[in-house]
């Protein structure tokens, strides 16, 4: 459904995408991950034909984005991170408007808008203005707008940012259902659990390069070592973190939510005694210690040196 062949993009002298090659099959749910500034958004913009690329080519269902931009755009539905709706218009009028922009005739757009409202679970709010909607409801209509023309490829850029759990679950279940019905989905998110729930294959981009691609199992098999220590401390001191990083078998250390410390080990060597000794010397009380298998978050940190939310 989508092929990127040695695609490069420069802004002036700065190369932000450095020869990405990638294939996504029809009917696939594909996760695209990368820290901020990695080139992920630029890559998506090039796929959608919003910005040109200097080298290589991008094909959507066999059509070159460079040579057939209008035909390609008819095959793609885009859900941007920012809400692309008119707040003073009703939900159904927004959908009809975007349907017409995608080339649907008026009667067809009205019929499709009703179908989409049912799909996103907001039929009862059809005539209410977008300005009266919660953040989660706006995002559901934002997705609905991208579905008006029944695209073959749906590209979703952070579709669940800042919304309530109920709307988030509804969006995830809707996307999963669309994919199961045969729609190809490219999904980007800062929430790794969403990508794991939806996507069979995943690619990680950093510094404009594709640094890993494959299934969750294939990617996690690349992690050096096989143990992650999860520490819950009463406090975190910079010196203690530096001492942890200095231990010979420690691959990386990250702090999440102020007092959760994740220690990635290069192998299965038992460093528990050394870590407890360091914490005691630093005046830090470890309230909980847990061993777990490495996951995609671990791999991401190991490959990029950053967490997904950095």
Automatic annotation (TrEMBL):
GO MF annotation: an example: ATP binding
Any single Pfam family the record assigns to this protein: ABC_tran
Superkingdom of the organism of origin: Bacteria
PROSITE patterns: ABC_TRANSPORTER_1, ABC_TRANSPORTER_2
SUPFAM superfamilies listed in its UniProt record: P-loop containing nucleoside triphosphate hydrolases
Domain ABC transporter residues, every copy: 2-232
Keywords carried by this UniProt record: ATP-binding, Nucleotide-binding
Membrane-traversing stretches: none
Protein name: ABC transporter ATP-binding protein
Organism: Cytobacillus depressus
């Amino acid at each position: 459904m989508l092929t990127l062949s040695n695609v490069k993009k420069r802004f002036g002298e700065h190369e932000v995408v450095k020869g990405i090659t990638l294939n996504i099959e029809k009917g696939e749910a594909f996760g695209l991950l990368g820290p901020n500034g990695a080139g992920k958004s630029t890559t998506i913009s090039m796929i959608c034909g919003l910005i040109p690329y200097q080298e290589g080519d991008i094909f959507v269902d066999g059509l070159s984005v460079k040579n057939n931009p209008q035909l390609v755009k008819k095959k793609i539905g885009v859900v941007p991170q920012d809400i692309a709706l008119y707040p003073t218009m009703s939900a159904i009028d927004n959908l009809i408007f975007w349907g017409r922009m995608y080339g649907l005739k008026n009667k067809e757009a009205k019929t499709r808008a009703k179908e989409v409202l049912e799909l996103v679970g907001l039929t009862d709010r059809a005539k209410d203005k977008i300005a009266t909607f919660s953040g989660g409801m706006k995002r559901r209509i934002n997705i609905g707008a991208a579905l008006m023309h029944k695209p073959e490829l749906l590209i979703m850029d952070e579709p669940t940012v800042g919304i309530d759990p109920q709307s988030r679950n509804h969006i995830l279940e809707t996307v999963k259902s669309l994919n199961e019905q045969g729609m190809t989905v490219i999904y980007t998110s800062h929430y790794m659990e969403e990508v794991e729930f939806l996507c069979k294959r995943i690619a990680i981009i950093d510094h404009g390069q594709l640094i890993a691609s494959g299934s969750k199992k294939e990617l996690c098999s690349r992690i050096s070592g096989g143990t992650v220590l999860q520490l819950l401390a009463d406090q975190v001191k910079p010196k203690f973190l530096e001492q942890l990083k200095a231990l010979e078998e420690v691959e990386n250390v990250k702090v999440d939510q102020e007092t959760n410390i994740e220690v990635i080990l290069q192998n299965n060597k038992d460093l528990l005694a050394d870590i407890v000794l360091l914490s005691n010397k630093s005046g830090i009380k470890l309230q909980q210690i847990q061993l777990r298998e490495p996951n995609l978050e671990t791999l991401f940190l190991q490959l990029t040196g950053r967490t997904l939310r950095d």
